[in-house]
Amino acid sequence: MRITILTGAGISAESGLATFRASDGLWENHRIMDVATPEGFAKDPALVHEFYNMRRKAASVAQPNAAHLALLRLATHHDLTLVTQNVDDLHERAGSTDVIHMHGALNRATCAECGHGWPAPMVMTPEDPCPACGKPATRPDIVWFGEMPQHMERIWQALEASDLFVAIGTFGNVYPAAGFAQHAGRNGATCLELNLDTSMNAADFDDQILGPASRTVPAWVDDICRR
Ligand code: OAD
Q1: Distance, CA 8 to ligand 1 centroid (Å)?
Q2: Can you give the pLDDT at residue 103?
Q3: What region, left, alpha or beta, does residue 182 occupy, with left being phi > 0 and alpha being psi -120 to 50 degrees?
Q4: Using a 6 Å cutoff on CB, does residue 20 contact ligand 1?
Q5: Is 116 a catalytic residue?
Q6: In what helix (H) or strand (E) does residue 46 lie, and over which residues does it extend?
Q7: Nearest-5° angle of CA 33, CA 68, CA 77?
Q8: Is there an atom of ligand 1 within 6 Å of 18 CB?
Q9: Is there a single domain that holds both residue 5 and residue 57?
Q10: Quick check: 22 pLDDT over 80?
Q11: Is the distance from CB of 144 to CB of 37 less than 8 angstroms?
Q12: What is the 8-class DSSP label of residue 4?
């Protein structure tokens, strides 16, 4: 079966990484607009670097949980495309390869001047020179609000070719990811949601399994790998 999975912050919650909208538009005590927009970065690059330095450190000590591990097993039984909105590398550290990071990755850096990309050091500062052009224009390779998500061509194609689309641990209010279920459904896929609570776009799914990802994902994978 051809399956496209979209994961969100909920799959990493039980690994100890904070979700985005746990309370009042704050993310780890920062306003999202201050730390996740190009305007916020232009205003205070040191604050934004410091914020992602902390996220990078937290992600590096977090461990993949049973849900990340279950998706590795799924890939051995089905033709899987794994898309994540998460910037952590817990899918990779669970053993998944070819993970599509549509919102970028904490462990990557990029140059705002020349577009060069390289592995991010644990601590980044606004003064860091780009290894290619030398300009102090380095930034985390993270897609901020108002910027274009990455790898979209490949993702739309996978959705259109899928028999099954599954969203795991995402609230369903940030586009284009929030439109994936509708797009896959229109192209003939069955759509399933695994989430702790009902999401914003629950009506776009044929079925829903509610509960913590570390429990629901392994159980669902067991089931679909038996078929
Ligand atoms: P959110 O923080 O908006 O939503 C997290 C979702 O996970 C909610 O639906 C929760 O009910 C669910 N959840 C929480 N704990 C869970 C658990 N243990 N098991 C299963 N589900 C659980 O995160 P996202 O939807 O991923 O974008 O956020 C989407 C995007 O908005 C992010 O990628 C980021 C953010 O702003 C950018 O940075 C561009």
Answers
A1: 5
A2: 98
A3: alpha
A4: yes
A5: no
A6: helix 45-61
A7: 130
A8: no
A9: no
A10: no
A11: yes
A12: E
